C-alpha cells in the first residue's frame, strides 16, 4: 500500500495488445506504484489465456492501493460486450473512452500522478459512434480544455538525458505541428499561428519537463528541399519562415526550415535538442526506424502528465503472448520522472 498518488495505465483497445502488455509488466513486478484502468474480468481472462500468474484485484477509484509483483490493481470500467483478442467490436468504443475519462478526472482531482495510455484503435472508435475522434492527443486536448497540445515522441536515451549530444543516431526527440490528419489536409492545417503556438509549447516543455535550459530546435520544411525558394511550394516562404522569425524574436533558438530528407542525419542533429516536423509520417517514420519499441509518446501542453507507447494495437499479436512490453515500460518510466519533476516544481513554487 502506497500513500502517494499512483500512476494510471489505461489498458486501451480490449481486442489489442494493451491489456496483455499491462499484465506482462505486472507479472514481472515492474509496475510498483501503478493502477490499471480497465475491465477486471477481461484482464483475468486474458491473464488465464496467456498463462500469466497475475492476481487481478478490483479497487475503488481514487484509492491508494497499488500493484505488487504478480498483482494488478484495477480501477474498474465495464466492457459493453465481451472482447476477443484480435477481434474489434465497435460496441466497446465507449468503454475505451470511459477509461480515458476516468484517468483524466483522477489526474485533475489529484488522485493520480500521471496517466500512461496503451494503444487504442481510432477506426473502431469512429465506427462505434464517435465520428469526430482523431486520436488520444486531440481527445485529451478537448477533455482538458486547452487550446493546443503538441505530440512529442522520443527514444529512450533522449527521454531522460539533459544533454543534446546524442550518443548515437537512434537518440531522437521529434515533435509534430500536425498530428492525425489525411495527407491532403496537412498543408491547410499548417498556419502561422499553429507553428508559433507549437514552437512555444515545445520550447517551454523541453525546459520544464526535460530540464533543458535553452533548448535548440530544428524545424523541417513542408515541401521537398524546404520549398526551394518557392519553386516547390510557398508554405515555407509565406507561413513557416515568418512564424520561425517570430519565435526567434521571442528569444527561442530555432533553426530552419530545413529539408527533412537531410535534417535527420547525425551531422545535423548533433547540436539539436528536438526536431519539429510538419506532419506525422515526416517525423515519426524516422524516429520509429531509429528506436521502435524503445520510445514513448508524451503530450505537451496538458495540465497533467500523459505518456504513451510508440506503437499501435497490433491485433495480429493479441492473445498470443509474444508482444513486447518494452515501450509501455519506457512510457511508464517517463511518466514517473515527469510526475516527480512536476511535483517538485509545484513544491518549490
From TrEMBL:
<comment type="similarity">
    <text>Belongs to the PdxA family.</text>
</comment>
<keyword id="KW-0460">Magnesium</keyword>
<dbReference type="InterPro" id="IPR037510">
    <property type="entry name" value="PdxA"/>
</dbReference>
<comment type="function">
    <text>Catalyzes the NAD(P)-dependent oxidation of 4-(phosphooxy)-L-threonine (HTP) into 2-amino-3-oxo-4-(phosphooxy)butyric acid which spontaneously decarboxylates to form 3-amino-2-oxopropyl phosphate (AHAP).</text>
</comment>
<keyword id="KW-0479">Metal-binding</keyword>
<keyword id="KW-0520">NAD</keyword>
<dbReference type="Pfam" id="PF04166">
    <property type="entry name" value="PdxA"/>
</dbReference>
<feature type="binding site">
    <location>
        <position position="280"/>
    </location>
    <ligand>
        <name>a divalent metal cation</name>
    </ligand>
</feature>
<keyword id="KW-0521">NADP</keyword>
<keyword id="KW-0170">Cobalt</keyword>
<protein>
    <recommendedName>
        <fullName>4-hydroxythreonine-4-phosphate dehydrogenase</fullName>
        <ecNumber>1.1.1.262</ecNumber>
    </recommendedName>
</protein>
<feature type="binding site">
    <location>
        <position position="288"/>
    </location>
    <ligand>
        <name>substrate</name>
    </ligand>
</feature>
<keyword id="KW-0862">Zinc</keyword>
<comment type="subunit">
    <text>Homodimer.</text>
</comment>
<feature type="binding site">
    <location>
        <position position="180"/>
    </location>
    <ligand>
        <name>a divalent metal cation</name>
    </ligand>
</feature>
<feature type="binding site">
    <location>
        <position position="137"/>
    </location>
    <ligand>
        <name>substrate</name>
    </ligand>
</feature>
<dbReference type="GO" id="GO:0050570">
    <property type="term" value="F:4-hydroxythreonine-4-phosphate dehydrogenase activity"/>
</dbReference>
<dbReference type="InterPro" id="IPR005255">
    <property type="entry name" value="PdxA_fam"/>
</dbReference>
<keyword id="KW-0963">Cytoplasm</keyword>
<keyword id="KW-0664">Pyridoxine biosynthesis</keyword>
<feature type="binding site">
    <location>
        <position position="136"/>
    </location>
    <ligand>
        <name>substrate</name>
    </ligand>
</feature>
<comment type="pathway">
    <text>Cofactor biosynthesis; pyridoxine 5'-phosphate biosynthesis; pyridoxine 5'-phosphate from D-erythrose 4-phosphate: step 4/5.</text>
</comment>
<keyword id="KW-0560">Oxidoreductase</keyword>
<feature type="binding site">
    <location>
        <position position="297"/>
    </location>
    <ligand>
        <name>substrate</name>
    </ligand>
</feature>
<feature type="binding site">
    <location>
        <position position="225"/>
    </location>
    <ligand>
        <name>a divalent metal cation</name>
    </ligand>
</feature>
<feature type="binding site">
    <location>
        <position position="306"/>
    </location>
    <ligand>
        <name>substrate</name>
    </ligand>
</feature>
Amino acid at each position: 500500500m502506497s500513500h502517494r498518488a499512483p500512476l494510471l495505465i489505461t489498458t486501451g483497445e480490449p481486442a489489442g495488445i494493451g491489456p496483455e502488455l499491462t499484465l506482462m509488466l505486472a507479472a514481472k513486478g515492474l509496475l510498483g506504484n501503478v493502477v490499471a484502468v480497465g475491465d477486471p474480468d477481461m484482464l483475468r481472462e486474458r491473464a488465464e489465456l496467456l498463462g500469466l500468474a497475475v492476481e487481478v484485484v478490483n479497487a475503488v477509484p481514487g484509492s491508494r492501493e497499488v500493484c505488487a509483483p504478480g498483482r494488478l490493481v484495477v480501477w474498474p470500467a465495464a466492457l459493453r460486450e465481451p472482447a476477443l483478442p484480435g477481434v474489434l467490436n465497435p460496441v466497446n468504443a465507449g468503454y475505451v473512452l470511459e477509461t480515458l475519462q476516468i484517468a483524466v478526472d483522477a489526474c485533475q482531482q489529484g488522485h493520480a500522478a500521471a496517466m500512461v495510455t496503451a494503444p487504442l484503435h481510432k477506426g473502431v472508435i469512429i465506427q462505434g459512434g464517435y465520428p469526430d475522434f482523431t486520436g488520444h492527443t486531440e481527445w485529451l486536448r478537448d477533455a482538458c480544455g486547452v487550446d493546443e497540445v503538441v505530440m512529442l515522441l522520443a527514444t529512450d536515451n533522449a527521454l531522460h538525458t539533459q544533454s543534446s549530444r546524442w550518443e548515437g543516431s537512434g537518440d531522437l526527440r521529434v515533435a509534430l505541428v500536425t498530428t492525425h490528419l489525411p495527407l491532403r489536409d496537412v498543408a491547410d492545417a499548417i498556419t502561422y499561428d499553429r507553428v508559433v503556438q507549437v514552437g512555444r509549447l515545445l520550447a517551454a516543455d523541453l525546459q520544464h519537463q526535460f530540464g533543458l535550459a535553452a533548448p535548440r530546435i530544428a524545424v523541417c520544411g513542408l515541401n521537398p528541399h524546404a520549398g526551394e525558394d518557392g519553386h516547390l511550394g510557398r508554405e515555407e516562404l509565406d507561413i513557416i519562415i515568418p512564424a520561425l522569425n517570430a519565435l526567434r524574436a521571442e528569444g527561442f533558438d530555432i533553426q530552419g526550415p530545413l529539408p527533412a530528407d537531410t535534417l535527420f542525419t547525425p551531422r545535423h542533429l548533433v547540436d539539436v535538442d528536438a526536431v519539429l516536423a510538419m506532419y506525422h509520417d515526416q517525423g515519426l517514420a524516422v524516429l520509429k526506424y531509429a528506436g521502435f519499441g524503445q520510445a514513448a509518446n508524451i503530450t505537451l501542453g496538458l495540465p497533467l502528465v500523459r505518456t504513451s507507447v510508440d506503437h499501435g494495437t497490433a491485433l495480429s499479436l493479441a492473445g498470443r503472448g509474444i508482444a513486447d512490453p518494452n515501450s509501455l515500460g519506457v512510457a511508464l518510466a517517463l511518466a514517473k520522472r515527469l510526475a516527480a519533476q512536476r511535483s517538485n516544481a509545484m513544491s518549490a513554487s
